[in-house]
Amino acid sequence: MSEADILVSGATGRTGGAAIDELVAMGKRVRAYLRSDDERAAALRRRGVDIAVGDFTDIDDIRAAMEGIKSAYFLHPIAPGIISAAAYFAQAAKEAGVSAIVNMSQISARRESTSHAAQDHWISERVFDWSGVATTHLRPTFFADWLAYPHFAKEIWAKKKIEFPFGNGRHAPISTDDQGRVIAHILANPAGHEGKIYTLHGPVEMNHTEIAAAMSEVLGAKITYAPTSIEEFRQKMEDLYRFPPFLVQHLVEVAQNYREGIFAGTNDVVEKITGTPALSVPAFIAKYRDAFV
Question: Which residues form the domain of 121?
Answer without folding.
Answer: 6-142+174-201+263-276
